[in-house]
Amino acid sequence: MGKPVQKVGILTGGGDCPGLNAVIRAVVKAATIEHRWTVLGIPDGYDGLIWPEKIHPLGAKEIHGILPRGGTILGTSNRGNPFAYPMQENGTTVIKDVSPILLENVRKAGIDVLVVVGGDGTQKIALELWRRGVAVVGIPKTIDNDLSATEITFGFDTALQTATEAIDKLHTTAESHHRVMLVEVMGRDAGWIALESGIAGGADVILIPEIPFSLEKICSKIEGRAEAGRHFSIIVVAEGCHTMDGHPIIPVDHERRQATRSGAIANTVGTLVGRCTHRETRVTVLGHIQRGGSPSPFDRVLGSRMGVAAVDLIARGEFGHMVCLRCGSIESTPIAKAVGALKIVDPNGDMVRTARALGISFGD
Length: 364
Ligand code: F6P
Prior knowledge:
The chain is an alpha/beta fold. It is built from twelve helices and 15 strands.
């Protein structure tokens, strides 16, 4: 890219998470204060570039007071891939490549660089735009913490806090009623939220996609606790977990890579556990509560660090790269290397080892 940067567009794509506004705020502050660039807010992910009417400047007024707010002031979408966009035609859904419209709108808006904040799917689209000549810089985002290119994604810490607080609350009612309480958390491909909130919350069983489970093993853990006088148990269930025979225990929406109905997995496991232990079970599904709330201090700081680092990449002309956290420091990596490789829990890693040593069962 030859001409000096003047206009930076920013969009947030995919599932929202706490910390997105910290990123937006940091990009706007660093870009306008240090470089006097104009920052344009692109609403609702890539949709905002397909229908560009709502693109608007972001300045001090727009970012005032957003640091502690969850969600994204820009809005987001996790359904609109411009290269394969579902459009309604004569009452039927057709899939169209509308990327030429998007590319033309980027040009018309005078956007020199596009900052894309999102998870794996969003970054894959950014990579395709980069390959078609759009200067892009990526910022990784997901509460699932399943992006291999970065140690931690902002959003994860707040989701972990939310899940842990919920598990803490379930302990007292489980013990009072001598019940088996199951709590379903998000994480369709990787069990990081389940694993870490299970350890932090003192769970007795943690079910994650990376370690297939058997019902018999879960029930034996519960009976073992009862024989030791602990007539209640806490089971943390990741939405993507499955049984040892590899078959999902409930219908799976393969396109969205998750159960066709939130809570279906925990409810099914709860019913089966109730039958085999003859104990009362109750199920709590945290769902999108994990995606909301005010970002933790950690996520506000990490989001701010990543936003500033993205502006630094732009100033250095390092396009096609994504900022990342490595050994506690902010670095960058080509987006091409960052996408497609999910960071899943290592069943032989120290986090699982820790849980097992604490007496936590993975149902295996
Ligand atoms: O990828 C983040 C995530 O929250 C997953 O943990 C969850 O399965 C999915 O998004 C939910 O997507 P939606 O918001 O479209 O229901």
